Amino acid sequence: MSFSELGICPEILEAIEVLGFETPSPIQEAAIPPALDGADILGLSHTGSGKTLAFSIPALESIDPTLREVQVLCLAPTRELAVQICREVDKLAMFLDGVSAVPIYGGASFGPQLAALKRGVQFVVGTPGRVIDLMEQGELKADNISMLILDEADEMLDMGFQEDIDRVVALLPENRQTLLFSATMSAAIRKLVASVANEPQEIAIERPQLTVPTCEQVVYEVVFSSRIEVLSRLIEMGRMKRGLVFANTKRVVDDVVDGLLARGYAVDRLHGDMPQTLRERVMDSFRKGNLTVLVATDIAARGLDIDDVDTVVNFELPRDPEDYVHRIGRTARAGRKGRAVSFIGRRDFSLLARLERFVGVRMQREKVMTGVQVEEVRRESLVDEILETAATATELPEELNDIDLPAEQLLAAMFNLLVSKTSRELQPIPEDRPSKFSRSARPADDECAPVEKGNDWSSLQQSVTLFMNGGKLLGLRPKDIAGLFYNEGGAPKGSVGDIRLFLKHTLIEVSPEIAPQLIERLGTCNICGYEVNVREDKGRPQGGNAPYEREFRPRERERRGASYAGRGNSNFRRDREDRRDSRERGGKSERVFYDKFSRRPRRRD
Ligand code: AMP
User: What's the CA gap between 194 and 312, in Å, rounded?
Assistant: First the structure.
């Protein structure tokens, strides 16, 4: 089928020709004719299917160029997508005189967006929050909107735009046409469709398989500082005989290579700064099996064509889903099995969801293997290797002939020797603690939370203050510290009192009887990937560089009802003043409370 058979007007057909599109894609073929006839559409199709053209063509055709009012409103989840759609619309409209589109999104100044609306733009593509703002301000008028388009509706719902969409839709004329596109179908999308569209025609486009089923896709939640250790554990467990590790920048590639070299593994790097001859030498070495691991950036790995990579590791998730597909396509080739392991941090969940949506596969969540598990697997694989060798080793070596020891004892000695010679010492990481990352294993919040008694500074009847040399700057929260004290330190329930976070240190009140144990166990310990020390607080040193600094006191703020999120400027100023006035004296902090009405500080007894 050709574009000319779809009933498209000559001006747009001419633009399509100039743009070089020869035949319509399946979604264009299925959606354009009914949309041109005025039907509502529910299009289930992914990015890359050509859906932008599928809705832009009928939208442009619905516009009356003589009317300088907004006639088409397209909602998109992100600023980038809104801009991209506008670019395509402008290109398609190159021969349509007097028709133009404008992107409208939050985080940018209103000025240019308002100017475009005043100029009489007919096609608005915007993110829901900014669109509703402008509609409610009366700057974006809905009276002449005859078409609503919702692009990537599933992503908009995932991003929490449901309420904004509802508010926008409530302001639109009832007799409009609605085209809704989503990569996935869910109960939430069904509900949205029912509320915005009128008997829509459903068009589902099968997406080509982007990843092969023989490639197992696994995700580990790992803090950045633990990643080299986790990578080493994958190698130690024999799961990676020829692995390709991807990082997003040259610097991280270098760090990973240095980290693995320091642990004695055969590893090399590939990145854009290397001369071609050196790159070829490295690739050759990897191909010949001289390297266990090759660490690369996306661009540098392009020329790499090797069939038997058993594991691909995403040391960092790529920002572009296409890169993910390219990366993991290096394993499970030619019908072989392969594994793609992705390390993610706490901030990567939405990116992960986007990747999963793009490849259409839910990745398997696995827990990082603990040191003990690695050890077990290592010993098992040694036994396997011994058994394999035993098949051909039928004669006792001469050197052992005269040894007068029971065979069992000799065998045990040999095994122990083998274990010690082949083992690398594992380094402890926060993920080894069950409580740190597995939400299910994490103690209940009330177990973790500091004990609170009235408004007294000290929440314990009697207490000792411990000092930890890490605080807000490390991103620590009272919960992390309580978790450390209860789980690693073995503190009994209720024995940890107030936790006061400062920028570079934390003061923790604990029951006197548990203090020695905590100091012993947590003297040097890991928290959120950082090594810290816990010791008895000696109070603020006199003179010199005092380790004490301004206090960050979220709990105090909460107690006085000042909301941290969404606070006004006055609250913010007040918090700053609170902190400035909260001075430490001789290791004890003195609290300053503010009079509710005068806002003047007053002492509290
Ligand atoms: P989309 O799914 O709308 O994000 O489109 C993905 C890409 O496909 C864009 O770069 C379009 O320019 C391109 N495209 C859209 N329709 C066609 C077509 N019929 N033939 C070739 N490329 C197309």
Answer: 42
445: pLDDT confidence band, cut at 50, 70 and 90? very low
Sign, CA torsion 60/66/70/71: negative
Nearest CA to ligand 1 atom 15: 50
Helix/strand/coil for 432: helix
Residue 557 has pLDDT above 50, yes or no: no
- Which run of H or E residues covers position 409? helix 407-422
* Pocket flag, ligand 1, residue 56 (CB < 6 Å): no
In the three-class reduction of DSSP (H, G, I as helix; E, B as strand; rest coil), residue 71 is classed as coil
Ligand 1 atom nearest to CA at 84: 4
The pLDDT assigned to 370 comes to: 86
Instruction: With CA atoms as reference, report the closest residue to 61 among 11, 23, 104.
Output: 11
As given in the structure block, the two tokens for residue 429 are 């990481």
* Rounded mean pLDDT, 297-302: 86
- Ligand 1 atom closest to residue 3's alpha carbon, by position in its atom list: 19
CA of 53 to the centre of ligand 1 (A): 7
For residue 52 and ligand 1, the question of a CB distance below 6 A is answered with yes
Judge whether residue 111 has pLDDT over 80. Answer: yes
Atom 16 (ligand 1): residue with closest C-alpha?
50
Which element (helix H / strand E) includes 533?
Answer: strand 530-536
On the question of pLDDT at 144 being above 70, the answer is yes
Residue 164 in contact with residue 127, Cβ under 8 Å?
A: no
Residue 10: CB partners within 8 Å, gap ≥ 6? none
